[in-house]
Each structure stands twice: as C-alpha cells, then as structure tokens.
Design brief:
about 350 residues; TIM Barrel; eight-stranded parallel β-sheet; two-stranded antiparallel sheet; 15 helices; binds NADP nicotinamide-adenine-dinucleotide phosphate
Length: about 350
C-alpha cells in the first residue's frame, strides 16, 4: 500500500479508502444489498492487513448500523492512532427546521450520535454530506469549527458540492479564523467525469484532497457488460445514476475490459489505476472479501499515457446524477431519500 497526505492536513491516508456504505443491517435503511456484521468485519480486517487505514461511513448508512459495525471492528482490530475514520452528517431535516434547531446544534447532535455509534471519542474527518440549502453556510462553518475546537473532530471535509460552494465556505472560514474543508468527496469515475470542469482544477490550486465516491460506478467498472451481481440487480439508486447513460458508458467499460485483458489484470485495477492518476484516495466500496485485493493491487498498476488517453477518449459530457442532480436550492428536502434516511438519526 502507498500513503499520502490528505490535502494540507497531517493525516497520512492509504491511497485507497474503504467505502463502508455496503456494511449494515439490510432491513434498516436505503439499501437491501448491504452485508451483515460478520462479513463486514472480515472485509475490514482484510483491508487493515493489506495496509488500508482510511475508512468512510455516514450516520445515515443503514440507520447507523454501518458506523456501529465499522466502529466495533476497528476498535477490535487496530489501535486508534493507526486508522483514519471519516463520517458524515446530512442537512437539517424539515422537523429540525420547524423546531428552530440551528445548524450548529444539528452538527453537535449528529456528531454525538456518530461518536456513540462508532464508540469513539473523535473522528479524523467529519464530512458535510451535501449542501444544505436551508441553512446558512456561516451557521454550518461555525458549528464545524466548534466541534474541531472541542477535540471531537480533527479535520472537516465536504461532499456533493459545486466548486463555488466550497470556495464560498472556505473563504468565510479563512476570513474568520475557522476550520476549513481539507477534502472533497465528489461523484467521479471513468464514466462520470463532471468534476473535471471546475472542482478538480480548484482543488489542485488550493491543495484540497480529492476522495471521490462510486469510484467503480457502483460495480459497473469492475465487470464485463452483462455480468450481474445482487447489488447490480438491487441497487436502484445506482441504476438511477447510471442507467440513462449506459449506452455511451458501455463503450468505455469495453475499453476497460480490453486493457485489463492486455495487461493481465482485473477491470477493477484498470479503473482504479486511472482514477489514482487524478485523485488523492478514491473511496471504494467492498461487499466481498475478494474485493479488497483488486482495490489494493490497483495502487501498483501504472497505466501508460496512451492507455489513459484510450480510456478517456470516448467520454461525452453527462448531466449531473444522484445527489448532485436531486439536491436543489428550491427543495425543502422532504422528498429526498437522505432526509428519509436521516429520520432514524435520533
Ligand atoms: N458522499 C456520498 O454521497 C456517497 C455516495 C455513494 C457512496 N459513497 C461512499 O463511497 C463508497 C463507494 O461507493 P459505491 O459502493 O457506490 O461505489 P463503488 O466503489 O464504485 O462500487 C463498489 C462495488 O464495486 C464492486 N467491486 C468493488 N471491488 C471489486 C473487485 N475487486 N472486483 C469486482 N467488483 C468489485 C462491488 O460490486 P458488487 O457488490 O456488485 O460485487 C462493490 O459493491 C461507499 O461505500 C460510501 O462510503 C458516498
């Protein structure tokens, strides 16, 4: 495994971050395809053994059970200073808004819930899961700074935002001596490259770490077209993100397969090796023990410039998909799947 600094911070993270959204009680939350605690523990242990020290979860993943499984496993298998745990908080719910719970209070409440789920005294990276159009950014940044000051959070990151939003938030923080976002978790992979327009150049300029999610397009970049799995069949949110553009995307997936065959490696390795030429540490989901090996091996695979060009050549601009497409200023959040999920955060 290779390690690098997470942006401007002193956190030394593995070049692969383990995405833990696939761990959790499948009867309690958004996804029917998540794996139980024993399977999650095996995967986490295998990741640690192979040098992965960076783990990503969220309070809304499967009603908090992802955080609980991850917390118990990490506490059992590793020393606290040897891993970096990232978790996330969602926007204020309509109920909180109606009850005048401020952004600052919301952050404090959600963080306390995450710390309880994880069984930890602090998190290394606390991530603003998506822009909250109903809460002033000043309130959010003050709330995040407060939990950093209390020692419950070491650094803050952001996810699912536009570059202008990140610039606005960090400028406010800088001008007021508050903690700034050091990392961005956006939706970025070989078949969804919209982050290249503004976010990636901005982050390079500011030395902000890129830790993209759905690095394998929720499995599509790992297997031949036509091959299927429980997740590919059941993950309706991923279908919603990728089905509309499948025809154009499949041509790129075929090229991934072609290079994998030529190099004698897996498609996962090719897809992640490409992403590793662009970002700090992709967040890679694992639901089977065998998934770890492909992710870890990708760190050693060096693609030639010709291979990179070949993989990139067929991309056509995409409309935003998933959270970035749904989370809109005019929305009050009621219809959002993540607000529904946040309802069980008590
Ligand atoms: N910030 C956000 O809004 C946000 C949104 C989504 C995800 N995330 C984070 O990002 C993580 C990853 O997202 P994701 O699960 O959507 O995407 P992903 O990493 O693109 O896809 C993971 C899937 O790829 C397949 N896979 C992984 N390694 C493989 C291997 N070596 N060989 C074959 N197949 C392999 C598995 O599919 P099968 O299960 O089908 O085998 C696995 O479930 C999540 O766990 C979460 O931490 C964040």
């Amino acid at each position: 495994m290779k390690y690098t600094n997470l942006g401007k911070s002193d956190l030394k993270v593995s070049r692969i971050c383990m995405g833990c959204m696939g761990f959790g009680d499948s009867s309690n939350g958004q996804h029917s395809w998540t794996v139980d605690e024993n399977t999650a523990r095996e995967i986490i242990k295998a990741g640690l053994d192979k040098g992965i020290n960076f783990f990503d979860t969220a309070v809304v993943y499967q009603g908090g059970t992802s955080e609980q499984y991850v917390g118990r496993a990490l506490r059992n298998f590793a020393k606290r200073e040897d891993y970096i745990i990232a978790t996330k908080f969602t926007p204020r719910t309509p109920d909180e808004i109606a009850n005048n719970i401020t952004g600052q209070k919301h952050i404090e409440n959600y963080l306390n819930k995450s710390l309880q789920n994880l069984g930890m005294e602090y998190v290394d990276l606390y991530i603003y899961h998506m822009w909250d159009y109903n809460t002033p950014i000043e309130d959010i940044m003050q709330g995040l700074n407060a939990v950093v000051k209390q020692g419950k959070v070491r650094y803050i990151g952001i996810s699912n935002c536009f570059a202008w939003q990140l610039a606005k938030a960090n400028n406010y923080a800088k001008n007021n001596g508050l903690a700034e976002f050091i990392s961005v978790q956006g939706h970025y992979n070989l078949i969804h490259r919209e982050e290249e327009r503004e976010m990636i150049p901005y982050c390079k300029e500011e030395n902000i770490a890129l830790t993209p999610y759905s690095a394998l397009a929720s499995g599509r970049l790992s297997r031949k077209i036509g091959e299927t799995t429980k997740r590919l069949e059941e993950d309706s949110y991923a279908k919603f993100k990728y089905d509309k553009t499948a025809e154009a995307d499949n041509k790129i997936i075929e090229r991934v397969e072609e290079i994998a065959l030529k190099r004698g490696v897996s498609m996962t390795e090719v897809s992640l090796a490409w992403l590793l030429t662009k970002v700090t540490s992709p967040v890679v989901g694992a639901t089977k023990l065998t998934h770890i090996e492909g992710a870890v091996k990708s760190v050693e695979l060096e693609l030639t410039q010709d291979e990179i060009n070949y993989l990139e050549e067929l991309y056509v601009p995409h409309a935003l998909a998933g959270v970035m497409a749904q989370n809109k200023p005019q929305s009050k959040g009621e219809n959002h799947v993540w607000i529904k999920n946040a309802k069980n955060v008590k």
